[in-house]
Design brief:
By secondary structure, the protein is an alpha+beta fold. The protein is built from four helices and nine strands. Strands 3, 4, 5, 6, 7, 8 and 9 form a seven-stranded antiparallel β-sheet that branches. A hairpin with a 7-residue loop joins β8 (148-153) and β9 (161-162). The chain is elongated, with a radius of gyration of 28 Å.
Amino acid sequence: MLFQDWPRHRKECIPTNSSSANNGVSNSSGTYNGVNMIATPPPAEPQYIAVSAILFSPEEERPRIITINCRPSHKPSQGMCPIPIVRELFPDGQPEGIVLTQGLNSEPLRFPLHLYYSPNALKKGAPVNRAIYHITSGAAPKAWCGTVVVLKFNGSRRQGYSDAGSNDLPALSAYFLAYN
């Protein structure tokens, strides 16, 4: 079919102005240097999501709410849960994560908590975390050092995050008090 249309096209098609085509100018018909240009969208950017998390900063007396961006997971082995971008909060190295599934009195949490901490903070001489010390009234058997960040899963399947808040502090306090 294309070969049948070519003679008609050659006869009816009007070439673009050669002076504008040679000067790198585009015209209103969407041609540039004599070549038809098709608008293409820019490459898709990953869709980051922002969630509220709890920051236990070693220098602060109380935990506070911060915003954490999460990027989509592209590896099936990591599941569908977005990956929190928390590395910049841990200048002494890669943080490790713990998932808390039980709260007060070993009750299962409907929304598990994802706690990030620095495994090397104590070895590197980081200060005791004053915010954790404060919410446990100094009774925690382990001295938590360095930064701790807590995100909240949006369900027991742990496929995404929802906003963490002050309602999550009792379960965290119980965890810090029970951890040896």
